[in-house]
Amino acid sequence: GSSGSEDEARPGTAAAAAAEKREERLRKFRELHLKRNEARKLNHQEVVEEDKRLKLPANWEAKKARLEWELKVEEKKKECAARGEDYERVKLLEISAEDAERWERKKKRKNPDLGFSDYAAAQLRQYQRLTRQIKPDLEQYEKLKEQYGEALYPTSDSLLHGTHVPSKEGVDRMVADLEKQIEKREKYSRRRPYNDDADIDYINERNAKFNKKAERFYGKYTAEIKQNLERGTAV
Question: Where is the region Disordered (predicted)?
Fold first, then answer.
């Protein structure tokens, strides 16, 4: 009788185990299905975002960073104004030495002094330097546009000679600028006065320049040796 009851119980236990395994497989299948849908959704979102990025201008990231920086600056200026502080002073106090040095190097790269190469390059640099200093009078420009109309923009057929009379302010400004250029040119090109009483310790002009440079950098270290040589007491 007992063996019969055990035979009846075994099929029930096996069926329960099979049902449990089937339920486990279905649960894993549902989890995989949910993960697949989630991955598909994330992939679609990434594709949409990438498409938006591709449609943006090439320098969008730089523009965005610039706008964010300008907003921070405006907020900082408002905070300084509320506290009664000078924003420029506060900004300088917050700049580290490394940042200042990096900005200085960047500034030099933007406008490097390449020295003299030829007269054409020197003339171009002088022209660019002078044009950067020009501050246009927009009010006068608008008046000239109203007065001359299309004639303000000459073509190859326009007669220019004698048609324009500069203002007194413009002439004075040009004269002042020319005088400033002459003064600066004389400052850098003046000949140094020759001292007849100075010791002659050179054999030619080039050697004299070298001795002046050596004296400027090493004079304080060799002063005692030179004095001993002059007195004849050098060891």
Answer: 1-22
